Amino acid sequence: MPGTKLDAQYFGRASWTRRLGCALKDLKSDGRAGPFVGSHVGVIRQLLTDPDAGPRVVINIGAEALLNFLATGSYKNLYEHPVIGGRRREPTPERIQVDKWLSLPGAHRFYFAAVALGGAGVRFYGEYCMVLRPERIPPDTRIFDRDSYDLLQPPLSGRGDDAMQRLAGCLRGTWQADLVDMLLMKMLPRLPWTRHLITSGQVSGLVMTDQEFVEVHLEGPIQPSDIEQVTQLPDEPAIEASITQRQAGRQAPSAVELLWLKRRREVAESLAMAKVPHGLATQGGRGYQWT
Amino acid sequence: MDVNSPPPPQGWHVDAWSVRDGMAFASYRSPDAITTATSSVFIGVPGLDVVPLGSVSPALWAARASFQDGLHDADGRSIAFDDLGQVRELVRRGFLAGGLGPGAPETGETPRGGPPDLPARLDGAFRETLLHARRMEFPGAAGGAAQRDEFFRSLCEPGTSEVVYELVRTFALAVVTLWRHGAAPLHEWPVGDAEDLLGWTGALFSVLWLHPSDALEHARRFDAELDVHEFFHAWRRWEYGAAAPPNALASAAPCPTRAGWDRRICRLSDKLLVLLAMDSALERMSDLGDLAPAILSSLIATRPPISGLLPYRDHFREHLRVALEWLSNQLPQRRLPDAAEQAIEQFVRDRLTPAH
Hints:
The structure holds 2 protein chains of 2 kinds.
Chain A: H1 16-29, H2 37-48, E1 56-61, H3 63-72, H4 93-102, E2 110-116, E3 128-132, E4 142-144, H5 161-170, E5 172-174, H6 175-187, H7 200-207, E6 215-219, E7 227-232, H8 235-248, H9 255-273, E8 278-280, E9 282-283, E10 288-289
Chain B: E1 11-18, E2 23-29, E3 39-44, E4 49-53, H1 57-62, E5 68-69, E6 80-81, H2 84-98, H3 120-131, H4 144-155, H5 161-180, H6 191-207, H7 212-221, H8 228-239, H9 268-277, H10 288-301, H11 313-330, H12 338-352
Antiparallel strand pairs in B: 1-2, 1-5, 1-6, 2-3, 3-4
């Protein structure tokens, strides 16, 4: 569906603050917002601007990659160097294309991360979620309202190169100036307008749902000292306990499970040695929150 | 591309792969264009379950992080797989191969112990036992699981199981001796490492030794140095169920080597993992002695819990049957496309080189 028409307000060129202002005004004027709109926005703003418990930049990582990161001090993008097999004949056209649309000055210097409010990030990218210290994030850090590869998928795809670059520009912002308004714009259609006040757990779920998140383009290398804490979902220790329990009941774990258990122990030891706080995202009555 | 040539066939392709972390994204598509994907999935350890995804965006994003970008042959072409079963097998074997070698730097993943050679007297006993072994034909990958299972069943038969028992018992003694050789007193070891040794030694009482005196008598025959106090401690912990379940892939367990063995393999777990990762490793074995380290690891992995079972020669055949069944289930289960098999073999070689 080439060039599908998009919502002019959300995909507009105005600042995120202005786009949000217009959206709220429209909601009020056509009566869709209900009586709770002002309170919702107030609660969400308060949660998203809390310096201690507010949003963080997170990067998920697997056990072996985390062990390497802690040992060598450098977080590597392995894209250029395959661990196994031959080298791709040329860089993926998709990546070249998206990087061009994002207008990243020197794409290789950027590390991609996500915004989260509690939780354990996106499990697909690794069971360990590294939460970066807020002071590591410069105010002018670029953010993008979604996984930038969504630009390759309908209905965003199928426009000319210039149009795609303009579209990508509309969906961009910076950490300090735009994060709260961008997140509010994303949340608006999903807010419970008419019946009750939104809770912090609901807000946490709206900031990151499954693999739907605000992307962060972090410039410069990431160091172990940038990690505020490492979190995990309780699922992992539960799987670990289940394997160990089976083992005690004379059901031998598979070799894959044995290696997985071994790695988990090594990570726990390495994090303790590096004095990096390591906890579970617990369900404290309002969704998975950081401990 | 020639406009008259047919479009490249669709198949399952790896989109992004974190080899050593056992996670991969794959999609059903043509080799050159990820955006042609009609189906996209995620596969990850330990369950290796196939999780369907709505789009290829997560896979592309993963390649920006610590995932490698697809899997390509020597000419840079994306390797096609027949079905998702093959992709799961690739992820499984890649993960196991990633457990080889020193692993991540400075993570303490080096075996403890002294020189890696099998002590002379133990090596002599090993050689002598091998003289009693019938000539082995190790099954090739082409023979499939049925031929392999038949081979393992034959190791449990009277006449052969006794030879295996002697070989594994001798090798286990060499491992424990080497593990403790020249090292500081156990109480000065990091807790995890000491637990590994005690857990392992305890497990050996389940499958190879009757009692500390049996083990010490065995050790005396070969002048093997064992700390009697520690040995009794391990046995007591096993008896009372205080020992943590040993991990058969514990990195600190050394692998004594013999003439003709690959000297880059200095951890016992490596000897097993090579066999599990490479389709051709079993058929390349030279004799039954070559298989003894993997059998020992399999016995540790499947050791019975604390029970009244008499861990003695008569019961060894049953322990061996369980261990070999486990080993057979962990070996390569599916043949991968040739280019993928070659990539795994190269990866195994790379993991064992000193540079890693």
